[in-house]
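Q:
My hope is that you can spare some time for a protein that puzzles me. I hope you can help me see how the letters and the C-alpha cells relate. Thank you; the sequence and its C-alpha cells follow:
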Amino acid sequence: MESKRQQKVASLLQQELAAVFQRDLPHLFPSLPPGISLVRVSPDLGVARVYLSLLMAPSNTAAEQQLALVQDNLKAIRQALAKRVRQQLRIVPDLVFFLDDSAAYAAHMDKVFGDLHIPPAPSAEPEAGSDAEGTAPKRPKLFADEDE
C-alpha cells in the first residue's frame, strides 16, 4: 500500500507530465501526445513508473512506436518535468514508461463475456397433486445422476 506522500508525489507527477507532453514538448509527438493513466512511485521516491494510455493509436505496433519515441526522448522529458516540479520535489525521480493495456484488456473481457452461452434456469412449476403450503419446494436437479 502506498503512503500518502507517495500518492501525493504520484498525483503531482501525473499532472505535470501531462502538461509536459501537451505544452512543453508537443513537437516530439507528431500525432496526439500520449495520455498518462497511472503513476506509481517507489517508497524512496526515486523511481516513478508511468503508464501511458495510447487509446488513439491505430494498432499495437503504433503504440509501441510511440512508447519507443517517449523512451528515446526520456532526457528531455525529465528535464522539462524538473523545471515544473523543482519547487515541490528535491529530486526528480527516474522515469520508467510502460504501456497501459487496461482498455484492451477490458475489450477482451467484454468479448469473452459476450461470447458466453448461459442456458436459462429451468422454470419451477408446482406439481398438480401437491399442496403448495404444506410441503417444501422441490430442489432442482443439478446433476444428471442425482437421486430424487
The two ends are 51 Å apart (CA to CA). The chain has four helices and three strands. Helices lie at 4-24, 60-72, 74-85, 102-115. The chain has a mean pLDDT of 84.
